[in-house]
User: Fold this.
Amino acid sequence: MPFIMLIYYIISAYILAMLIWNFIKEKKSVNDMLLYLLVMVPFILRLLRVK
Amino acid sequence: MPKQWKIKVILILIVSALVITAGIQLYKHRHFRMALAAGAGVNKVTMLSDYCSGLKGTMADTHVFFLEGKEPGGKMLILANTHSNEPASLLAALIFLENAVVEKGTLIIIPQFNNSAGRNTRPGDGYPLYFEIQTSWGAKKFRMGNRDASPLDQWPDPDVYVHYPDKQLLSFLDIRNTNRTWPGRPNGALMEKVTYAAMELMRTEKVDMAVDIHGAETMFPVTNCIVAPEKAMRIATMTSLTLKAREGFDNHVEPSPSGFRGLSHREIGDFSDTLPFLLEAPLPFLDQPTGPKTVKLLLDGKDPFLLGLAKKNKLFVPYDESGWPMENRVGQHCSAVLELLRQFSRKSPDRSIRVKNVPRYAGIVKNGVGYYYHNPAIINKKDLYFN
Assistant:
């Protein structure tokens, strides 16, 4: 795997971790919960390499 | 369980259901096997990866069909689906593939040049995943692709695409566009390998002419035309004049700009002895100010918004209630390719190419595109290729 690709995967994992953290911490806004979940989708697919 | 967690679980279930439902459709589209029927004229089939090993085992690899005549002569390469959302190119290439019989010289056909883009879509524009062409034996189903290769096959995109070898700065997206990655390189991005393989094919096989078939918006000036560089201009001009005089449709000539890099009509000519031509036929489906991007719009090219713009002279092609049907576009491409062959053969008799059994514009408009396709169910299995 090229170095740049490795960096991209690390960035994806970091952003996904932040999204999960925000989703867990969110207590009131259903809109925000939904938004976090939807934004997570491409990062999960990329990390799991689902094609 | 606290109320907020009940809501979260419900949301996770809803989002998962949506993602899985859509994911299954996209997975099926990406892996849909499209039957390519090799006609009686085909006598050799190879893969593009034979010319660049880096393509082997990837979704970018694709079939290359050779139709060789009994008499030696010149060679022409037909590239279709360089942009897989311009399907008249594929349909025209398949008419050649299934019907052409080469008497002299060689035709080389790559019906799905950007195979990865053919497995991509544009959900944000509401692209249909498939379209069908009616034939006498039923409907022939095709995958509808996208302009650029799938990010599943080539990722990540750069912030700015630096073209090789000219170092011209292009849009990041164009690194997945096989009409911006010419002449390519063997160790570059996947689409650079695709164009490099085609360049190697042309150099190895000593191809005389390459025709890259496209479709373009009616609101874009480079439409309904033949694009050619300086060295191919004479043949393009004679072809355009002859088509207008004999077959009655416009196909003006556009010069290939020398300062805009990565395009087939520029780089093929600059990096090989092959004469490149790019054909454009109007494709209302690609215009921005249209109604929904439906299969009907793709096939008949009828749109009320474009009609309104045509009345205000905002389009670069004639447009009325009859739209711009697929038959007309495919017919134009077939006639233009045949005429390019004829003009080249007149200019270079020692390298002439003679092809028969391919219909021209009037025949395709009259009979429809599906009339020229054979039923894969009754074709010998060894002549069927799935891409």
User: Anything to note?
Assistant: The mean pLDDT of chain A is 94.
